[in-house]
Design brief:
The complex is a heterodimer.
Chain A (H helix, E strand, L loop, with lengths): L1 H14 L7 E2 L9 H13 L3 H14 L4 H15 L13 H19 E2 L4 E3 L2 E3 L6 E6 L4 E8 L2 E13 L16 E4 L4 E2 L10 E4 L5 H5 L8 E3 L11 E3 L3 E3 L1 H8 L8 E5 L4 E3 H23 L3 H5 L2 E7 L2 E2 H13 L4 E12 L6 E12 L3 E13 L2 E9 L1
Parallel strand pairs in A: 5-14, 7-12, 11-13, 16-21
Antiparallel strand pairs in A: 1-2, 3-15, 4-18, 5-6, 6-7, 7-13, 8-14, 9-10, 10-11, 16-17, 18-19, 19-20, 20-21
Chain B lengths: L16 H4 L3 H15 L3 H14 L4 H13 L3 H14 L4 H13 L3 H14 L4 H22 L5 H18 L9 H6 L5 H4 L11 H37 L3 H5 L2 E6 L6 H14 L3 E14 L2 E12 L3 E13 L2 E9 L2
Parallel strand pairs in B: 1-5
Antiparallel strand pairs in B: 2-3, 3-4, 4-5
Helix pairs in contact in B: 2-3, 2-4, 3-4, 4-5, 5-6, 6-7, 6-8, 7-8, 8-12
The chains are: A alpha+beta, B alpha+beta.
Chain lengths: 396, 340
């Protein structure tokens, strides 16, 4: 009997042994989370240590009494003692659909345990964090995983990762009510405490700025995409179960919440995180950094043609296209004898939704013979051919 | 999911010299009390066993019988006390653990039931009854775990099980026909367990996998002989019961999808005739007498018995054989044969 359950779990593991950009299990932190205990249980089942697996799953349930997946596994381990079982989640007389979500959660968690984020690589999206951004969050909707990176003097360092649920209809949100999770570069815009929320959102919620400038240009709409917790009656939710939000277990959210900075912490949501070696990452970052510096210098040079050459034919700004932007800039620059532009607090995040698109944010200090101001600016740069062009510019 | 705990009816009195040396009169007395218990004379049986215990307060056989009587009287808490004390005084005996487990299960305390059954098996690794019960308790615990996984409310089903258990106690306290009657067991002291019992797992705690593996091999045969027989008999009794109560749909549900109709008529034709026949009677009584189960294999069995049929208009008694098959964990009737 015990061998039957072992076989089915083995199959589940093998199914996920497919090639991956992630390296096999190399645990980057000492882990006392539910995932680690769950992984132990799976290893014991595969190794035939069924009694020990049952003890551990019961231990896990003591710590997380509402962990539905743990109860499912416990059910299997017990039922396997009474009669042979042929599948993972062998509850009799239960519609497949009810079990499917828990199976998917099990596979996502096993996979996350087996395929750890590579230690010598970084998600390609985190090109540059500004000094005050202590952490960045990167979500992988396919793996149902959220990775936390720390800003270590400009280099992203992996801190921890967590199981998450996302939209029941998958990624690439485009429309209000499509129950999909947006893909793109966002940041935390607020912190909503538990007292202001219904139980559905768990211990707290952190709205993000969907739709961002790029989403609006693409005609995407909808609102209310949050990172939030889990209702009190369950420890976690199936991988694809939210209305588009990114959902964490309450204990995980609590751990992350301490690291989040409203208005600052980037939340980059991808379908399938891509990783770069530190060398490739640095060269990508330098390439765009140089372009940005050229743009700044060309603006100061008062050579408007050189300055405008940095803008894409598809450029837009709020209420402007490239033509109106060009006319405006020529007019303004005509009245200048000198311009000084200072760029500081620069951050650059590649958009997972479109290759070569980078969301750039900085504080701009502008001085000239007749006008001075300071704004926080956002630009979207797009790799066009060999070079980079600005495709959107506005205040952040 | 049916839940059929088996209460160990007889105490196997090895390792208890006091009992072995007891005068025959005393053994006969216990035998008589067990007889009263079987006849349902619980109050009388309790009185006699209390008298007996007044003279021999420590007698494990009498204490065990008292526990059984209390259990049948639905005095679960008192019965638990009796069996708990017995298992403390005689930790080497598997039966008190088993009965404690059944009583805990009747209260819905499946986790406690599991612990007792595991102790029972540790004491006596070939104790088939405990394995059967443990299987049921595991199934019940699994079902509770699944309910939690799927967020179903299991509180109601627990109550239902409690009721069915109380009913089951009466039928299951009689050992299945295949095993020896309890008295015989009590009279014929078994050799010391060290020689008679199959080797138990060396160190129950030290090696978890070994512990999980070892009992499985041993449990295989008894499952078919004893637990399997029990399941078949329960089905036949329930079938007769549904027939007697004229619950036509329940009655028809006992027949396999590929049931061979007696005259080879179509299934729906046969069903219609049965519906008409059963529902038109004012009263039906179907008795199943001296049933015998024969297994072809794990999933195929025949049950032969004397069927006593009596309705408001008709009375007949004759041999009946049911060819039964187990599909999806359930025994159903594949063919009905009359005559011997």
């Amino acid at each position: 009997m015990s061998t039957r359950i072992a076989t089915s779990v083995v199959l589940a593991c093998v199914a996920f042994g497919a090639p991956s950009t992630l390296s096999p299990a190399k645990i980057a932190r000492i882990d006392t989370t539910a995932d680690a205990l769950l992984a132990t249980v799976f290893e014991e089942i595969v190794g035939g240590q069924v009694d020990s697996a049952l003890q551990n799953i019961e231990g896990l349930i003591r710590v997380t009494p509402n962990f539905r997946l743990a109860h499912l596994i416990k059910g299997d381990l017990l039922l396997a003692r009474a009669r042979p079982i042929t599948t993972f989640g062998a509850a009799p007389n239960v519609p497949e659909a009810n079990i499917e979500g828990l199976r998917a959660e099990a596979l996502a968690r096993i996979r996350a345990y087996r395929e750890r984020p590579p230690e010598d690589r970084v998600p390609r999206y985190l090109l540059q964090l500004r000094d005050s951004q202590k952490y960045a969050l990167v979500v992988d909707t396919r793996r149902s995983r959220l990775y936390v990176y720390e800003n270590d003097a400009g280099t992203p360092r992996f801190v921890a990762d967590y199981y998450v649920s996302s939209g029941k209809n998958g990624p690439q949100k485009a429309r209000e009510g499509d129950e999909k999770t947006p893909i793109g570069v966002y940041h935390i815009t607020a912190s909503l405490p538990r007292q202001k929320l219904s139980d559905f959102y768990g211990i707290g919620a952190f709205p993000i700025n969907y739709p961002n400038e790029w989403d609006r240009i693409q005609g995407r709409n909808g609102h209310g995409i949050w990172l939030h917790g889990t209702p009190s009656n369950t420890y976690s939710r199936p991988p694809r179960s939210s209305n588009g939000c990114v959902v964490l277990s309450n204990s995980d959210l609590e751990e992350i919440a301490r690291k989040l900075q409203v208005g600052l912490t980037p939340v980059i949501i991808s379908e399938d995180v891509q990783w770069l070696s530190l060398d490739d990452w640095a060269s990508e970052r330098n390439s765009l950094g140089k372009e940005l510096e050229h743009w700044r210098a060309d603006w100061e040079s008062l050579d408007t043609d050189r300055y405008l050459a940095h803008y894409s034919g598809n450029f837009s700004a709020p209420n402007m296209d490239l033509d109106s932007w060009s006319r405006h800039k020529r007019l303004v620059n005509g009245g200048k004898t000198w311009i000084k532009v200072k760029v500081s607090n620069l951050s650059m995040f590649e958009d997972p939704g479109k290759a070569g698109l980078v969301s750039v944010t900085f504080d701009q200090e502008y001085r000239s013979n007749n006008l001075s101001n300071a704004v926080r600016k956002r630009q979207y740069w797009l790799r066009e051919g060999e070079g980079w062009r600005i495709i959107y510019e506005g205040t952040a | 999911m049916t839940f059929m705990p088996r209460l160990a009816a007889a105490l196997l009195v090895f390792l208890i010299p006091a009992v072995l040396l007891a005068p025959f009169a005393r053994a006969d007395e216990i035998q008589d009390i067990n007889g009263l218990l079987k006849q349902g004379q619980h109050a009388k049986a309790l009185e006699r066993v209390n008298q007996y215990l007044a003279q021999k307060p420590g007698d494990p056989n009498a204490r065990f019988t008292k526990g059984l009587i209390l259990a049948e009287q639905n005095k679960t808490a008192e019965a638990i006390e009796v069996f708990a004390a017995l298992s403390r005084d005689y930790p080497e005996l598997p039966e008190p653990y088993n009965n404690l487990a059944v009583l805990y299960a009747s209260q819905g305390q499946y986790e406690k039931a599991r612990q007792q059954l595991e102790k029972s098996i540790r004491t006596h690794p070939s104790y088939a009854t405990a394995y059967e019960n443990l299987g049921d308790v595991y199934t019940k615990l699994a079902s509770q775990a699944y309910d939690k996984a799927l967020q179903f409310d299991s509180s109601n089903s627990a109550a239902k099980n409690k009721l069915s258990l109380i009913r089951d106690l009466i039928s299951t306290s009689r050992p299945p026909t295949a095993s020896a009657p309890p008295v015989a067991m009590a009279e014929a002291p078994r050799p010391a367990p060290a020689t008679s019992a199959p080797p138990r797992p060396a160190e129950p705690k030290a090696s978890a996998p070994a512990k999980a593996e070892a009992p499985k091999a041993e449990v295989k045969r008894p499952r078919v002989q004893e637990g399997g027989e029990q399941a078949v008999l329960q089905t036949v009794l329930a079938w007769a019961d549904a027939w007697s109560q004229q619950k036509v749909e329940t009655y028809l549900a006992f027949y396999a999808r590929d049931f061979k109709t007696p005259k080879g008529e179509g299934r729906s034709q046969w069903e219609a005739a049965r519906r008409e026949r059963i529902s038109s009677a004012k009263k039906i009584e179907v008795g199943v007498e001296s049933p015998k189960v024969a297994f072809k294999d794990e999933n195929n069995a025949t049950v032969s018995f004397r069927q006593a049929y009596r309705s408001d208009t008709f009375k007949v008694s004759g041999r009946k054989t049911l060819v039964m098959v187990r599909t999806e964990g359930r025994w159903v009737i594949q063919q009905e044969l009359s005559g011997s």
